[in-house]
Design brief:
CATH class: Alpha Beta
Strand order of the largest sheet: 2-1-3-4-12-11-10-7
Order of helices and strands: EHEEHEEEEEEEEEHHH
Radius of gyration: 18 Å
Shape: globular
Structural class: alpha/beta
């Protein structure tokens, strides 16, 4: 029997009941833990944790390059101080050694501590740190939550879904054989998504775009870093809300500082939820090598649909 791949789901904040702690990503953790191969064997061994209290390197992240984890899914939910220099150095070595790395954040400056990560950090643009090189995109997009400035692309209400558009050559991360188009069409929406791009010289490209419901502006949702000379496969994602319990089902609750009225589109439209689950499973499989891009971009039978 093939041993399951080891995945670490980790936030950049200490545990807090009134914040985006790892407990608010429990549906994602359950989805990955429940994934099975054709023989019924578990595909993933999932560890989910928040970071240690701030002020010193995190005991796991600062040594992850010496761990037996195959993938790190980093949910950057801090306000700029979530990762120490030692954490970033170890995570960068982890990917350089061949580990799969997924990094997501949110609007404005939320999660900006990821900028110091090698390669993938360059894909994340913030308000006060590493702003989008395209100056025309440095403007407010979400007109409703006025205390949040750019980047804040408005793709819809939490709990609803948005249509996404593939960019360029088809990629396994966006494949869905059950979809009429053969590709993922829908992902959870969020009132103020972050900003990402494909840094030059890093083997990266934009795979998917969304469109603001407020201004009609296109924005990047997904950037993939192909495995190679820079290290293992990696993904930069525009917002952690594509994976949060609250976005998959608002009845699960949210921190008290979330004020926008949620929707229920994902719960009402099975195709949108199926795309959301397939997207997460595809990411996990691609990061560990179960899916790799081929000329015909067909999916392997490595994962079992939810």
């Amino acid at each position: 029997m093939i041993e399951p791949k080891k995945i670490l789901l980790q936030t950049t904040i200490p545990t807090s009941e009134d914040d985006w702690s790892i407990a608010r990503f429990s549906s994602l953790a359950a989805l990955l833990r429940d994934a099975r191969d054709e023989s019924g064997h578990a595909l993933y061994d999932v560890t989910a944790r928040d970071r240690d209290p701030p002020g010193k390197p995190d005991s796991v992240l600062s040594t992850i390059d010496r761990s037996d984890f195959d993938e790190l899914w980093l949910f950057a939910v801090d306000t700029g101080n979530g990762l120490t220099e030692e954490d970033c150095a170890a995570i960068s070595r982890f990917r350089k050694n061949g580990g799969g790395l997924f990094v997501t954040r949110d609007h404005m400056d939320l999660g900006s501590s990821v900028c110091a990560l090698g390669g993938v950090g360059k894909a994340h643009y913030f308000h006060s740190k590493q702003p989008d090189p395209d100056v025309s995109r440095r403007k407010r997009d979400d007109p409703y939550t006025t205390d949040i400035d750019w980047p804040n692309f408005h793709s819809g209400a939490n709990g609803d879904f948005q249509e996404v558009e593939g960019v360029g050559e088809a990629h396994p991360v966006l494949a869905n054989e059950q979809s009429p188009t053969g590709s993922i069409r829908f992902l959870p929406s969020h009132p103020h998504e972050g900003d990402i791009g494909a840094p030059k010289g890093e083997g990266a490209r934009v795979l998917a775009k969304g469109k603001s419901k407020a201004t009609g502006v296109d924005f990047n949702i997904l950037v993939a870093f192909e495995p190679g000379e820079h290290g293992g496969a990696a993904i930069a994602e525009s917002t952690f809300h594509h994976f949060a319990d609250y976005n998959w089902d608002p009845r699960s609750g949210c921190p008290s500082f979330v004020r926008e009225k949620p929707g229920d589109g994902l719960q009402r439209v099975p195709e949108a939820m199926a795309d959301t689950h397939r997207y997460a499973l595809n990411i996990a499989a691609w990061l560990c090598g179960a899916l790799r891009r081929t000329h015909d971009t067909t999916l392997t039978d490595a994962i079992q649909a939810d």
